[in-house]
């Protein structure tokens, strides 16, 4: 639903919320998983 909660908590500011998508800088991600925890609809998941 692109509420932007994940973008607001990323300590590295790696998530950009767009109108119908998320832009995510995977190379800079430190895998803290805060963004996964705050999503109210559990829309994010870790890529194995
Ligand atoms: S897991 Fe990556 S994208 Fe998510 S909050 Fe942490 S650093 Fe940011």
UniProtKB/TrEMBL annotation:
Pfam family, one: Fer4_7
Gene3D superfamilies: 3.30.70.20
GO molecular function: oxidoreductase activity
Domain 4Fe-4S ferredoxin-type residue range list: 20-48
Protein name as catalogued: Ferredoxin
């Amino acid at each position: 639903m692109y509420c932007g909660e994940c973008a607001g908590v990323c300590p590295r500011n790696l998530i950009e919320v767009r109108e119908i998508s998320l832009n995510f800088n995977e190379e800079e991600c430190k895998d803290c998983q805060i963004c996964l925890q705050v999503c109210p609809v559990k829309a994010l998941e870790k890529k194995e």
